[in-house]
Predict the 3D structure of the following.
Amino acid sequence: MIPPRLAPLLEQFDFATERLVGRIAGPSMDSGDGAETKTVPMTDEEYLWEPVPDCWSVRRRADGPGARATLLAGAGPWGRDAAAYPHPWPPPFTTLAWRLSHLAEMLSLRAEHTVGARVRTRDDHVVSGDAAGAVAALTEGAAAWRKALAAADDAALDTVGHCTYPHGSDAEEPFLDIVWWVNQEVLHHGAEIALLRDLYRSRRA
């Protein structure tokens, strides 16, 4: 049984992730009113598109980090632009690739630190260098986080440190607050991703 306090947040997460995956992978997405809208799948060119100079993105590790980044986070031949604290100010503009990698990592690692071995870090997360890999990573991360949510009972929702994700305040917060925060991350980055897709489609107009 899903606790009543969790049910609306789980429903919101399901809708937000399904709509986001539809926006980037196609062939259609929920327009928001229940109607299906045709969607062109994201290409590799779009995934790596840098609309302004000095974007943060995902890059081949052999090429090194981008402007104002000091490292490439993640595992594998690709990495995501990052910097140790304090981060650059003003914040760098981030690409579709960066935002999708951030979401996939956050979802998968938070799931692992809730119902898994609780040992993985950003250094263990494989960064995708292409659109198909990014969609798969986001889908897998969302499924893992949803499984962690479905396993939570009322006691877990009130437990401080039920999630021990090391790149946030999770160990100091009740799990219900973390659930809310993750939804907020999916919603606001999903909106940013949708806007970037619109800008890419209209860039030659």
